[in-house]
Amino acid sequence: MAETADTMARPTDPIGRVLYGVAIALATFGGLLSCAMATIVTVSVCGRYLFSWPVPGDYDIIGILCGCAIFSFLPYCQLKRGNVFADFFTQSARPQYKSALDAAGNALYLAAAIMFTWRLYHGAHEMRQSTEQIAAFAFYRWWTIPFDIFCMIVLIFAIIHTFTHDLTAARTGGSAATPNAGGN
């Protein structure tokens, strides 16, 4: 990427600020889900070891929470340009060239994110029709997918936002962080 994740500043444009605020809220929620997973695993392991009584459905709960947490982190990682960072071959390249490569990478990532969102939607529809539940308790597996789809929609907007900034930087010869200048 043209800039490292540490040097990326908060966006100052209105759309960027809204996206950044939503991404921060989602990432915070994902962190809380991660803490909940750690607590559930700890309680389940201790209960299993000490009392032969684990948390019922702990594997299913952890799987669902882990999926939601991962989706929660994606938009923030994109806005901080921390999803993929491989600049071994482009360290000495001009910022304009790096921004053009970043824009190309964002275009591919955008296509993948749109495809995943589309398939999530159809998968949720099929899961809802099948009425599949977790065996340990009455929880339909499709209930968390609308949240995942929302996270993917926010990710799509974040990719579009970074893509437009990378294109601008590639055209003007500046760094991709230039349009986002502002304090952390």
What attributes characterize this protein structure?
mainly alpha
Give a brief rundown of this model.
The chain has 184 residues and is an all-alpha fold.
How is the topology of this model organized?
Blueprint: H1 14-51, H2 58-79, H3 95-130, H4 145-172
Account of the 3D structure:
- The chain has 184 residues and is an all-alpha fold.
- It has one domain (13-83, 93-177).
- Helix content is 67%, strand content 0%.
- It contains 4 helices and no strands.
- Helix 3 runs antiparallel to helix 4 (145-172).
- The longest helix is centred in the first third of the chain and has 38 residues, at 14-51.
Global geometry: elongated
Number of strands: 0
Tell me the span between the first and last alpha carbons. 19 Å
Low-confidence stretches: 1-7, 178-184
Largest β sheet strand count, sense and barrel closure = none
Residue fraction in strands = under 5%
Q: How do the helices and strands follow one another from N- to C-terminus? A: HHHH
Q: Radius of gyration from the CA trace?
A: 20 Å
Please identify the structural class as seen in this structure: mainly alpha
Number of domains: 1
Q: DSSP helix count?
A: 4
